[in-house]
Amino acid sequence: MHILGIETSCDETGVAIYHTQKGLLAHRLYSQIRTHAEYGGVVPELASRDHIKKLVPLIRQVIADANISKRQIDGVAYTAGPGLVGALLVGAAVARSLAWTLGVPSIGVHHMEGHLLAPLMEPDPPRFPFVALLVSGGHTQLIEVEGIGHYRILGESLDDAAGEAFDKTAKMLDLGYPGGPAIAELAEEGDVQRFEFPRPMTDRPGLDFSFSGLKTHTLLTFASTAKTRQDKADIAKAFQEAVVDTLVIKCRRALKKTRLTRLVVAGGVSANRSMRDKLRRMAREESFQVYFPRLEFCGDNGAMIAFAGCQRLLAGQTEPPEISAFPRWPL
Ligand code: KG4
Ligand code: ZN
HAMAP family, per this entry (predicted)? Predict the structure, then answer.
């Protein structure tokens, strides 16, 4: 079965074709970063317009890359939410129209389920059950995963998502958008000894997170420095390590609480090198296994949507004929 996957929830147009036996055949990604950079963040209306321009040409290219004809597509998966409603509706309308003209089923996929399942596309994928840490621009969640569609939220952020905290801190330090990679890069030059930032909510039981206090702490620290490149690097380092340590502490706690031994980490922030290193170290110490998507599938992409949609279609799931999108949608 060939499944076409379409991702348009935010500022990346992602398209891919996943084959049930052969795996991922083709994938392409168009990033709108340059369109939004001058505004310091994503402008929803510009995002929708750009998806309209790029989506159909990308679908054509991916079908050619996979060396198949459109008649060989057996199903179309698209991100139905959560995300920007205009951007989501572009993907939903194109996906469902295409499925209808080809006479094949379509399936709306939860964006975070796409992230969650992305590590399963790698060689040597994790077996169920496992604990998943989803860390993106909109979500920070610990989830107990028993199988496809069987998810129990163990904890989540009570305010900012981890990626959002990276983005806001980067803005504060004048590092531009998107903030996560900019903070991570500058943190390489930072002195970890200079500032000690708090690890929020780690001194009490539970698996929820809170990152907004850390953001304020960063702001106050920044206000009291000379704002040289070295000052910014030291703050970026202190901030990053505080977020990473907090995530590592809660992952260890979630694994112990559930008595599970496999940890899956996904979403844009899972590209962070310090986080990958520290989670691997924790896993070694505790004899856990940790799984990440390859770097290009940490952020938004069409491959994860094709893969997740494929699992849903294989399970016999279909959807009603009306086109809908969910700007907010609990997993
Ligand atoms: O999953 P994603 O691409 O989109 C959402 O679903 O939100 O995640 C984007 C988030 C942004 O907040 C971005 O700053 C963050 O992931 N991010 C990073 C890194 N790369 C991307 N955060 C920390 N370190 C990184 N290397
Ligand atoms: Zn995402």
Answer: TsaD (MF_01445)
Helix (H, G, I), strand (E, B) or coil at 239: helix
HSE at residue 307, side-chain half, CA atoms within 13 A, is 26
What pLDDT shows up at residue 177?
86
Q: Give yes or no for residue 322 having a pLDDT over 90.
A: no
Q: Which residues line ligand 1 (CB under 6 A)?
A: 10, 115, 136-138, 163-164, 166-167, 178-181, 184, 267-269, 271-272, 299-300
Peptide bond connecting 123 to the previous residue in cis, omega within 30 degrees of 0: no
Q: How far is residue 49 CA from its own chain's centroid?
A: 22
Say which ligand is closest to the CA of 268.
1
Which ligand gives the minimal distance to the CA of 183? Answer: 1
Q: Using CA positions, which residue lies closest to atom 23 of ligand 1?
A: 180
List, as ranges, residues with CB under 5 A of the ion ligand 2: 136, 300
Please report the pLDDT score of residue 52 as a whole number.
Answer: 98
Q: What is the mean pLDDT of residues 176-192?
A: 96
Which atom of ligand 1 is nearest the CA belonging to 299? 3
Q: How far is CA 293 from CA 120, 125, 202, 300, in A?
A: 8, 10, 26, 11
Asked if the model's pLDDT at residue 277 lies above 80, the reply is yes
Specify the residue for token string 């599970």: 260
